[in-house]
Design brief:
two-stranded antiparallel sheet; about 100 residues; about 20% helix; single chain
């Protein structure tokens, strides 16, 4: 499974870690020198959450910045709220369990 946000498409990127030696000039030294460079990855902070989409609830990988900025809507937590939304016509009402049997 890829580490990609399903809303904004944020994904893992590559970069470098620099190892330095010496005291900075503004702290009274001769300056810092790069003594090593190694590859590293920057991973997005992805969370698997339940998302309200087109009247249905699905689980998706979403980055925390999208959750914080309100780009996804979480489903209502209580059954009575689902019934109110069904009465308003915003969602499709699922058949009862007894009707399926």
């Amino acid at each position: 499974m890829a580490r990609v946000c399903s809303v904004c498409g944020k994904k893992t990127t590559a970069g470098n870690t620099y190892t330095r030696r010496g005291l900075a000039k503004k702290k009274g030294g001769n300056g810092q020198n790069v003594t090593g460079k190694t590859k590293r990855t920057f991973r997005p902070n992805l969370q698997r959450i339940r998302v309200w989409q087109n009247g249905t609830v699905t689980r998706q990988l979403v980055c925390t910045s999208c959750i914080r900025n309100g780009k996804v809507t979480k489903p209502p937590k209580m059954k009575k709220h689902l019934e109110e939304l069904a009465e308003q016509g915003k969602i499709k009402k699922k058949p009862a369990a007894a009707a399926r049997a």
